[in-house]
Write a structure and sequence with these properties.
With 405 residues, this protein is α/β, with parallel strands linked by helices. It has helices at residues 50-55, 83-94, 114-128, 138-150, 154-162, 179-194, 215-221, 234-247, 254-263, 268-284, 291-297, 311-322, 326-330, 336-353, 357-363, 369-385, 387-403; strands spanning 104-108, 133-137, 166-170, 198-203, 225-229. The chain folds into 3 domains: 36-229, P-loop containing nucleotide triphosphate hydrolases (Rossmann fold, 3-Layer(aba) Sandwich), CATH 3.40.50.300; 234-298, Helicase, Ruva Protein, domain 3, CATH 1.10.8.60; 311-404, DnaA protein, C-terminal DNA-binding domain (Chromosomal Replication Initiator Protein Dnaa, Chain: A), CATH 1.10.1750. It is built from 17 helices and 5 strands. It has a 5-stranded parallel beta sheet with strand order 2-3-4-1-5, sandwiched between helices. The structure holds adenosine-5'-diphosphate (ADP) and magnesium ion.
Length: 405
């Protein structure tokens, strides 16, 4: 599972004011070349050895933020919800400075994968080229910029940014009402854009909904390609859960994955945390993963557990599971497997629907209430003496719970 570290700021001594010798050069992309720097290492914004930084003037001027090495395209599950944004991001990552998507602006609600996607661009470019990549957030940029003004080092600040080939700024909605910083960003944006450098932004709302940002800057934000991330649809949620469980080396039965995906809909971060909590409960309390445990774990999430299954649903699922045609259960047949399916169906109807015995009887081909009582007692006795039967009933119950939503 990846840790979100988009809010992590560096606490190492601030990076050098001096640019590396190659600053300002246009490095040619080197497709397929081995990584020049460990993408997870914060000091490597410029793909130079950290010592080059450290030996230089240690006076602060600007810095980027570390990339999370696990935020890659490979780990970003594609679905209808993100297909367009992902393709645009990948196109840029594969041919930085050679697409018309400049800037690329990714927008989408909380936990939908903005940070993952923009960092995937950064990671890919770092690994496949000499391009100078800088990833930062609007907050981080703002504090660096303000500091450069206070210390009269704005020229160096601008020079630092001008030498970057791929600038990624996360969460630009926080530039809202930062008038001074917006001026600085506007200036840097124009320099980079004119030089054909790639710029990538992310924001949690549509650009026209970002308030407190100067119009000229807003129009720059939207001057390239705007792509949104939507809430993941069921299929994508299932694929994401499967992948995350796999990455953890844990096999969770498909039915359970589907159950979680049905109930956790808002965003990917919630999906991830449901899975993490589930695995933690299972291992800490040494419990088998089953529907009751999943329900417990999802307890804090808004799930509708009040709706009850219908007798028809229970009848159908029971018959399917036991391999008995439903119409036989409605009839008077006395063959063992038919009687068993009929009784199990009645038993679960009594347990799960809240209907009267008489009503349940009617749903099973007009049996009377004493037949239903007899069926329920029979099932209970059988369960006490036969662990296999108990196991079968447990599975049928899970099946009913999973399919009834
Ligand atoms: P945002 O920045 O939009 O709030 P993040 O990029 O931080 O969202 O994503 C939240 C979590 O969900 C991260 O751990 C990320 O890896 C994961 N995630 C989001 N979208 C996907 C996806 N399509 N495939 C796999 N993981 C995803
Ligand atoms: Mg984010």
């Amino acid at each position: 599972m990846t840790n979100e570290n988009d809010s992590v700021k560096q606490d190492h001594p601030k990076a050098s004011a001096h640019l590396p010798d190659s600053a300002g050069e246009k490095p040619a992309p080197v497709p397929g070349e081995a990584p020049l720097a460990d993408p997870a290492t914060p000091d490597h914004f410029f793909n130079v050895a950290p010592s080059a930084f450290e030996s230089a003037d240690t006076f602060f001027v600007a810095s980027g933020m570390p990339l999370n090495g696990s935020y890659t395209f490979d780990r970003f599950i594609e679905g209808d919800c993100n297909q367009f944004a992902r393709s645009a991001a990948l196109a840029i990552a594969q041919k930085p400075r050679h697409t018309t998507f400049n800037p690329l602006l990714i927008y989408g609600g909380v936990g939908l994968g903005k940070t993952h996607l923009v960092q995937a661009i950064g990671n890919h470019v770092r690994q496949h080229s000499n391009y100078k990549v800088l990833y930062t957030s609007s907050d981080h940029f703002t504090s660096d910029y303000m500091q450069s003004l206070r210390t009269n080092r704005n020229n160096e600040f601008v020079a630092f940014y001008s030498s970057i080939d791929l600038l990624i700024i996360d969460d630009i909605q926080f530039f809202s009402d930062q008038e001074k910083t917006q001026e600085g960003l506007f200036h840097i944006f124009n320099i980079l854009h004119q030089a054909g450098k790639q710029i990538v932004f992310s924001t949690d709302r549509a650009p026209q909904e970002i308030s407190g940002v100067a119009d000229r800057l807003l129009s720059r934000f939207q001057g390239g390609l705007v792509a949104d991330l939507q809430q993941p649809e069921l299929e994508t949620r299932i694929a994401i859960l499967n992948r995350k469980a796999n990455d953890q080396g844990i096999a969770i039965p498909y039915a359970f994955i589907e159950f979680i995906a049905h109930h956790v809909k808002n965003n990917v971060r919630e999906l991830e945390s449901a899975l993490i909590r589930l695995l933690a409960h299972a291992s800490l309390h040494r419990r088998e993963i089953d529907i009751p445990l999943i329900r417990e774990v999802l307890g804090e999430l808004p799930i509708d557990t009040s709706a009850k299954p219908t007798v028809e649903e229970i009848r159908r699922i029971t018959c399917e599971y036991l391999g008995v045609p439903e119409d036989l259960v409605l009839g008077r047949g006395r063959r063992r497997e038919i009687v068993q399916a009929r009784h199990v169906g009645m038993y679960f109807s009594k347990q799960l629907t809240g209907h009267s015995l008489a009503t349940i009887g009617r749903y099973f081909g007009g049996k009377d209430h004493s037949t239903v009582i007899h069926a329920c007692r029979g099932v209970e006795n059988h369960m006490e003496t036969d662990p296999n039967f108990r196991q079968t009933l447990k599975r049928i119950r899970q099946e009913i719970e999973i399919r009834h939503r």
